[in-house]
Amino acid sequence: MNFIQSLGTTWTKNNSLLCVGLDPDPAKFPAHLKGKPDAIFEFCKSIADATADLVCCFKPQIAYFAAHRAEDQLEALIAHIHARHPGLPVILDAKRGDIGSTAEQYAIEIFERYQADAITVNPYMGRDSVDPYLAYADKGVILLCRTSNPGGSDLQFLDVGGLKLYEHVAKIIASEWNTTGQCALVVGATFPGEIARVREIVGDMPLLVPGIGAQGGDVEATLKAGRTANGTGLIINNSRAILYAGKGEDYAEAARNAAQTSRDLINRYR
Amino acid sequence: MNFIQSLGTTWTKNNSLLCVGLDPDPAKFPAHLKGKPDAIFEFCKSIADATADLVCCFKPQIAYFAAHRAEDQLEALIAHIHARHPGLPVILDAKRGDIGSTAEQYAIEIFERYQADAITVNPYMGRDSVDPYLAYADKGVILLCRTSNPGGSDLQFLDVGGLKLYEHVAKIIASEWNTTGQCALVVGATFPGEIARVREIVGDMPLLVPGIGAQGGDVEATLKAGRTANGTGLIINNSRAILYAGKGEDYAEAARNAAQTSRDLINRYR
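The joint structure predicted for all components is written out below.
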């Protein structure tokens, strides 16, 4: 089963479009974890185990591990998720993008070393910079289209022959790059009108939507703009509001409660 | 002394615009290194020590280390270059690009953990995705503009109001993003006419030029298109033709000879 198929299964099985973003910041950890050598792994593992039946996938952000020399803990975390929660896909948010020979090395890093099921990729370098990831037929490739940060408009809003650049990116990925059906797109929740525009361009392709919660995106507007006819098609990421819902030893339980609230709120508008 | 100043010093001191790209591929290593646990470090260290007086900087490509779980060897390599060859800048080629809070983590990874002097960054997510790197006042930020791979044209050649996207990127970086003078641009050697166009737009901003050697870029055309009035302004990267010039125990000496040939060829057209 490939990434897109696995996602279809967990959307249904867990009745959830929620993705918990695993962006571990040790400064925000509960006191009893601070200073422990494997605190990053412990923290993320507890959150993952407490929320696994409420999500469609997990999305660790590699920068939060790399900044702390915690590559081994990231490997252990993904291995744990695969062992304990089989069938639940893991997206490694790495936003890689490089020439083919280098992209082959990144693909080894992400898919073989970390055993991630999907990667986020930056499209600026073009189709051949994406092919090495697509060569792994069971993996997903989630390309940046319209990002949720304020500066996202600097380039993505440029007019290219009557389309905005992000619309053009959506169009060429849907019509030219996605020949194998492995692609998805990142479209920020801060811009529901643009989610609707991308949905119009790409049909039922899955959209990874960051920006719910800490970044202020509106859940109802996001769902109305981006859901497909069967009420799926979205991977709605929530990180900080779930990870740091609790500050004490019951942080995993607090995270579960926050994830349940988030999933149920999303489901109200499917 | 910041990155751009250090580069100015090494251009003069070593009479060189050559950058040796450290893209270690264990499959191509000399037989006596194969299977050694620190082969990646040993290989790159020997090449760096053999060529340090012939280059203006080194550029390790992080994917080649990450694919082999060799982050510790990359740390050791950069520490070695700084200790043994003080003043010689190290560019960590990582092509990062993410929202501000995540970019802060990448900046910790690249500048604090690895102690690199400059990083390559993808501009697709806009100005605020670059600010966290610019917050390190002594570091350099080298943004992708026109990349040397065939698919580079897919987005970078789009017409945005009379300019191609890569020209627009050069223009906004030079006129809006580079307020602190820390920026440089990546412009591939496979397109000398485009190097000339970028040079016209950005004045004396340094240009990192990959694509000499294995990718077939022309040295004379590159220099004529991109050199500044004083015969500098370029960081001309050569990786494979230098790293794998020799296949035996004398590989470092062979690399030195290849680097000398490459530097001298470049200098002929300054």
